[in-house]
């Protein structure tokens, strides 16, 4: 099932969805899960990964909230949604930098997902009206 299809079915949307925003919501949802998984893998590492764990969990929370806000179509809160997309992009880049500094494959994969999510959030900002 596609989140874009679900958004398109909303009575206030009438099939005319914002593709960039739907993509950002989808990637924020994936990024939430990737960061949560990375944090869990970091717990199992033998070295001190506290900062990476904290950064991943913070990013997961921001991504989850961003995804939820991005799929809502009843009413509008344009300023809040734009601010959340900007914040999500910034937090994702912080997480990408932290994870990118570790050699663990799970951290590298998380860093890649965070960069992609940040890019999609930035692309969606000007489309929110």
TrEMBL record:
Entries under Pfam families matching the protein: Csp
Q: Which InterPro entries match?
A: Csp_YhjQ, YHJQ-like
What Gene3D superfamilies does its record include? 1.20.1270.360
The domain of life is: Bacteria
What name appears for this protein in its UniProt entry? Answer: Four-helix bundle copper-binding protein
The organism of origin for this protein: Sphingobium naphthae
Q: What is the lineage of its organism?
A: Bacteria, Pseudomonadati, Pseudomonadota, Alphaproteobacteria, Sphingomonadales
